[in-house]
């Protein structure tokens, strides 16, 4: 059973995944957290600096380490029993308190660095972040439901390629689609609403002046982030996937792109057609 964790208004968590202290990402982190702290109480999870271990293993199962079974389910039982490792409990406490989550990382091999993927693996446990069947609807508490409803997230990503190369017709694929496993498969899965991506293109070749421009872009973005509307995906509980995990045939007929899972902006009461 999922326990709901109402966020504490005015709290934010910035999760940062880059190993270098002298990097563009480090500069963005410094400026971004400073700007965000004008409106929020900001906690920072600097995963490399903390020495966070991304590997989900038997130590995450408490007394259940020797029991056979699904490791995600066992980790959820360990959470319920209060037996998760201290580093995971600390991250869960910071996340539970935050109404805004900022996730910052460089795009490596078209996805997040392993240390961030491991943070998702270990921190977003069953029972804490998502749960079993809703007793009234008979559907799992996932995809717009779960323990972390009521939060927004901003994904800040640096990419070495230009905007066209990693755009809708680019050789590398569209970045929104590449990061769908995070915005939908991680964040929306546990009920967190994702804002539009914040992307720094050509990150490997920026001049000093261009770096400062990107810093100012991020400062401006986070300064107004509290007033932004989230892009909402379709909720599992609303019946759009009735009887299956595939979208109903009468919705967006003939389309197979990932955009079919978008429901619109929050102000549109999830009824607008995706753009």
Task: Describe this entry's structure for a reader.
With 275 residues, this protein is α/β, with parallel strands linked by helices. The protein has a single domain (11-229), classed as 3-Layer(aba) Sandwich (Rossmann fold), CATH 3.40.50.360. It has helices at 24-36, 47-50, 71-80, 86-97, 114-123, 175-178, 180-187, 208-223, and strands at residues 11-16, 41-46, 100-106, 131-133, 140-141, 152-158, 193-194, 198-200, 231-233, 262-265. Strands 1, 2, 3, 6, 7 and 8 form a six-stranded parallel beta sheet that branches. It has a two-stranded antiparallel sheet with strand order 4-5. A two-stranded antiparallel ribbon has the order 9-10. A hairpin with a 6-residue loop joins β4 and β5. α1 (24-36) packs parallel to α8. The longest helix is centred in the last third of the chain and has 16 residues, at 208-223.
CATH fold-level topology = Rossmann fold
Low-confidence stretches: 267-275
Q: How many strands, which pairing sense, and closed or not: the largest β-sheet?
A: 6 strands, parallel
By DSSP, the count of extended strands is: 10
CATH structural class: Alpha Beta
Overall helicity: 25-40%
Q: Which value, in Å, is the CA radius of gyration? A: 19 Å
């Amino acid at each position: 059973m999922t326990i709901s964790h109402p966020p504490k208004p005015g709290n934010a968590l910035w999760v940062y995944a880059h190993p270098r202290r002298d990097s563009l990402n480090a500069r963005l982190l410094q400026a971004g957290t400073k700007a965000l702290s004008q409106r929020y109480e900001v906690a920072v999870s600097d995963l490399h600096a903390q020495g966070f271990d991304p590997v989900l293993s038997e130590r995450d199962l408490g007394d259940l380490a020797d029991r056979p079974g699904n490791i995600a389910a066992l980790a959820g039982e360990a959470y319920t029993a209060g037996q998760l490792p201290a580093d995971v409990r600390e991250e869960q406490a910071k996340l539970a308190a935050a109404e805004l989550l900022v996730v910052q990382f460089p795009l490596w091999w078209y996805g997040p660095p392993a240390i961030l993927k491991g943070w998702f693996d270990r921190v977003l446990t069953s029972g804490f972040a998502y749960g079993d069947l809703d007793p009234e609807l008979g559907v799992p508490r996932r995809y717009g439901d779960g323990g972390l409803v009521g939060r927004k997230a901003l994904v800040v990503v640096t990419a070495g390629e230009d905007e066209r190369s990693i755009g809708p017709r680019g050789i590398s694929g569209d970045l929104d689609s590449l990061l769908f496993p995070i915005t939908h498969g991680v964040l929306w899965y546990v009920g967190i609403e994702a804002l539009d991506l914040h992307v720094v293109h050509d990150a490997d070749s920026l001049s000093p002046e261009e770096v400062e421009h990107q810093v100012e872009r991020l400062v401006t973005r986070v300064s107004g982030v509290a007033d932004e509307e989230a892009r909402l995906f379709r909720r599992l509980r609303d019946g759009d996937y009735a009887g299956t995990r595939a979208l109903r045939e009468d919705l967006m007929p003939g389309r197979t792109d990932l955009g079919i899972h978008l429901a619109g902006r929050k102000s549109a009461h999830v009824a607008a057609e995706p753009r």
